[in-house]
UniProtKB/TrEMBL annotation:
KW Membrane (keyword) present: yes
Keyword ATP-binding: no
Organism: Agromyces atrinae
Transmembrane segments: 6-31
Keywords tagged on the record: Membrane, Transmembrane, Transmembrane helix
Protein name: C-type cytochrome biogenesis protein CcmI
Domain SHOCT intervals: 54-80
Highest rank taxon of the organism: Bacteria
Length: 83
């Protein structure tokens, strides 16, 4: 076929080349994926919530029974102390 290459030799060469390309594709995928995760973790934090929204969330937690009245009062003092 190709000056001394039998058909099965060509199949082996093509298989090895495909294997190398596949490994390179996996490496590229892993590197770009790890960069994307790193970019997400080093990005600036979300804007802090306003005092009003934090107090509303705190009130919601109390009315749903997630936190006690004492916990509500304590956390409300902390939030209002930030003003």
């Amino acid at each position: 076929m190709f000056q001394g290459f039998a058909g099965w030799h060509l199949i082996i060469v093509i298989g090895v080349l495909l294997l190398i390309v596949g490994i390179a594709a996996i490496i590229i995928y892993v590197v770009t994926r790890s960069r994307a995760v790193t970019d997400q973790t080093t990005s600036p934090q979300a804007m802090p919530q306003s005092i009003e929204s934090r107090l509303a969330e705190l009130e919601s937690l109390r009315t749903r029974g997630v936190i006690s009245d004492d916990e509500y009062a304590r956390q409300r003092r902390v939030i209002l102390g930030e003003i």
